[in-house]
Write a structure and sequence with these properties.
single chain, Frizzled cysteine-rich domain, Plasminogen Kringle 4, 2 domains, two-stranded antiparallel ribbon, kringle, Frizzled_dom_sf, nucleotide-binding, Frizzled_dom
């Protein structure tokens, strides 16, 4: 079950690719002002409102299809881990935005997305590493890497850490017992800034290895910053009253700028 949840999250965070539309269609602007009953139970319960705009900020009008959306389901799963108090707010502001009189529905502010991204990055990155069976590094340095890559960027086979041929060295499992110096796998026992490395079986003494970074993709730049030409919604969590509070930022009376709406 846990692996299935992780798989669902990774499916979005590593595989979904989005393109950017050039402008908000005029028809969409009108639909953002029209209310319909909110049928997405998650948002009704989490946010406490019963109506939403006729279209959301993923350009979807069918709420039944929203609930089958990969990103929506991934965010629902992420909300269960509690890594950010604003996951529910970001999810519903994107997929079931409230219509705010007299402005209509406003897009989530970029800062709202960044809050969720910043607080949940470690969790989603760890999940990515789990599903990759350890074959990626959590940081650029990759001191955490314990995978089985055993060749350099140029495809040269690595020398085993417990041998002294063809290159003599003093970096062994005995001198670095906590750095995973097994077989001839790439490691970073001395904190090289560019990542895991190994001694080589060629004339070059050592070289860096092609160990990928565990990638997590959150598309926050697709959402607007508040400005005199653009209004957006943000949320804070009132811990004293244990509830989310909506904030309208920027100029909600201005036309909707042609900010980038994700399409996928």
């Amino acid at each position: 079950m846990a692996k299935a949840i992780v798989a669902m999250l990774l499916l979005f965070f590593t595989n979904v690719e989005m393109t950017i539309s050039s402008a908000v269609p005029a028809k969409m602007v009108q639909l953002l002002r029209e209310k319909v009953p909110l049928n997405i139970e998650f948002c009704r319960l989490a946010m406490g409102y019963s109506e939403t705009a006729k279209i959301n900020f993923m350009q979807q009008t069918n709420q039944s299809l929203v609930q089958q959306d990969r990103l929506f389901k991934a965010l629902l799963t992420l909300s269960k881990f509690g890594c950010s108090e604003l996951t529910e707010a970001y999810t519903c502001a994107t997929y079931a935005p409230p219509v705010i009189a007299p402005y209509g529905a406003l897009p989530p502010c970029r800062s709202l997305c960044k809050n969720v991204k910043g607080n949940c990055d470690a969790l989603t990155t760890a999940m990515a590493k789990h599903l990759a069976n350890g074959e990626c590094k959590m940081t650029t340095e990759g001191g955490d890497y314990r995978g089985k890559v055993s060749q350099t960027f140029d495809g040269v086979k690595c020398q085993a850490w417990d041998t002294q041929e063809p290159h003599r060295h003093s970096v062994t499992a005995k001198t670095h017992p906590n750095d995973g110096l097994e077989s001839n796998y790439c490691r970073n026992p001395d904190g090289e800034s560019k990542g895991p490395w190994c001694y080589t079986t060629s004339g070059r003494r050592w070289d860096y290895c092609a160990v990928p970074k565990c990638k997590v993709q959150f598309y926050c730049n697709y959402f607007p910053e508040p400005s005199e030409n653009q209004g957006c919604v943000d949320y804070t969590y009132n811990r004293k009253e244990a509830k989310l509070e909506l904030l309208v930022r920027g100029n909600p009376r201005a036309r909707i700028d042609p900010w980038a709406i994700p399409e996928y």
